[in-house]
């Protein structure tokens, strides 16, 4: 599952982002449930619509920015339509995902509130 779309922050490192927008604003964008960062410009080389692997997706369906709420809304249909039925058939499913898409699934599966999910940390996998 793709990581959330960080919009206009894509391509910046954390230090540059804090210098440009301030630590409080960056913290709000990174940890809040429903505050997206500024949108990415579609002319940016980082916009997924400029990557051939997304050519089959209509441009209007490619996000310009996402908050965690948007990431949940994007990933849950795949969970419900593809992963859950496969598990129900006894299949083993491997999910390769990033922290925010995992946080979104965890919120859904464990019934975690919007306020509580902002403090949940997903550790980086260790091979």
TrEMBL record:
<protein>
    <recommendedName>
        <fullName>phosphoglycerate mutase (2,3-diphosphoglycerate-dependent)</fullName>
        <ecNumber>5.4.2.11</ecNumber>
    </recommendedName>
</protein>
<feature type="binding site">
    <location>
        <begin position="99"/>
        <end position="100"/>
    </location>
    <ligand>
        <name>substrate</name>
    </ligand>
</feature>
<keyword id="KW-0413">Isomerase</keyword>
<feature type="region of interest" description="Disordered">
    <location>
        <begin position="25"/>
        <end position="47"/>
    </location>
</feature>
<keyword id="KW-0324">Glycolysis</keyword>
<comment type="similarity">
    <text>Belongs to the phosphoglycerate mutase family. BPG-dependent PGAM subfamily.</text>
</comment>
<feature type="site" description="Transition state stabilizer">
    <location>
        <position position="98"/>
    </location>
</feature>
<feature type="binding site">
    <location>
        <begin position="30"/>
        <end position="31"/>
    </location>
    <ligand>
        <name>substrate</name>
    </ligand>
</feature>
<dbReference type="InterPro" id="IPR013078">
    <property type="entry name" value="His_Pase_superF_clade-1"/>
</dbReference>
<feature type="binding site">
    <location>
        <position position="14"/>
    </location>
    <ligand>
        <name>substrate</name>
    </ligand>
</feature>
<dbReference type="InterPro" id="IPR029033">
    <property type="entry name" value="His_PPase_superfam"/>
</dbReference>
<dbReference type="GO" id="GO:0006096">
    <property type="term" value="P:glycolytic process"/>
</dbReference>
<dbReference type="GO" id="GO:0004619">
    <property type="term" value="F:phosphoglycerate mutase activity"/>
</dbReference>
<dbReference type="InterPro" id="IPR005952">
    <property type="entry name" value="Phosphogly_mut1"/>
</dbReference>
<feature type="binding site">
    <location>
        <begin position="3"/>
        <end position="6"/>
    </location>
    <ligand>
        <name>substrate</name>
    </ligand>
</feature>
């Amino acid at each position: 599952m793709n990581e959330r779309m960080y919009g206009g922050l894509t391509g910046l490192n954390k230090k540059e982002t804090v210098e440009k927008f301030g630590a409080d604003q960056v913290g709000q964008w990174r940890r809040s449930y429903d505050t997206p960062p500024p949108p990415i410009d579609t002319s940016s080389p980082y916009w997924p619509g400029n990557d051939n692997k997304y050519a089959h997706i209509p441009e209007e369906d490619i996000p310009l920015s996402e908050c965690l709420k948007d990431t949940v809304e994007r990933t849950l249909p795949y969970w419900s339509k593809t992963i859950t039925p496969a598990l129900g058939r006894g299949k083993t499913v491997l999910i390769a995902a990033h922290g925010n898409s995992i946080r979104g699934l965890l919120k859904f599966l464990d019934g975690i509130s919007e306020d509580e999910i902002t403090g949940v940390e997903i550790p980086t996998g260790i091979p």
